[in-house]
Specification:
This protein is mainly alpha-helical and 168 residues long. It is built from 8 helices and no strands. The protein is elongated.
Length: 168
């Protein structure tokens, strides 16, 4: 009787271990195929990685993933907005403006996109920046930061005009 119980116990342990090993093997196989087979990487995984890097401020790395996401889905305004912000943080202002414009075209965070395009334009072209800030205010009349930026741009443009008058 003892011998029978031992045989049953050993059989049950063997079957349990076999099930655990097969489940473990399947999990590992799934993880490996997802990790190393780039054709199986889903946009959701790319987005999670891009979002994580973006949120941590790792803009150079985030841009790589955002570029890939945009190549897979050219109609997602969020990707352009985040890449615009990323380009801005990497001091690639012209690229940032282009991305914010695309974000606007795709109706994603339009007010923020106009504002950010204005900020990036204000480093080189106050007249263009004013255009973006005014569009921002037209949609969101209480946008306090846009009002302040308009005043700053107008001051710079005014002082530039005064400098030109003095040199003539």
């Amino acid at each position: 009787m003892r011998m029978l119980r031992c045989c049953i116990l050993i059989s049950l342990l063997f079957i349990s271990c076999e099930n655990i090993d097969s489940k473990h093997a399947v999990n590992i196989e799934n993880k490996l195929s997802t990790k190393f087979d780039s054709s199986n990487i889903l946009s959701d995984n790319l987005k999670q990685i891009a979002d994580s890097l973006y949120d941590k401020g790792s803009y150079k790395d985030a841009k790589i993933y955002l570029d890939k996401l945009i190549s897979k889905d050219t109609l997602n305004g969020e990707y352009y907005f985040k890449r615009g912000y990323t380009n801005s943080m990497l001091l690639k202002r012209k690229e940032a403006i282009t991305d914010f414009q695309k974000s606007i075209d795709l109706n994603f965070r339009i007010v923020d996109s106009y504002f950010n395009a204005g900020i990036n334009s204000s480093y080189d072209n106050d007249s263009l920046a004013l255009t973006y800030f005014k569009k921002c205010l037209k949609i969101s009349p209480n946008h306090h930061k846009a009002r302040l930026e308009i005043l700053d741009c107008e001051k710079r443009l005014s002082s530039t005009r005064e400098d030109v008058k003095l040199t003539l």
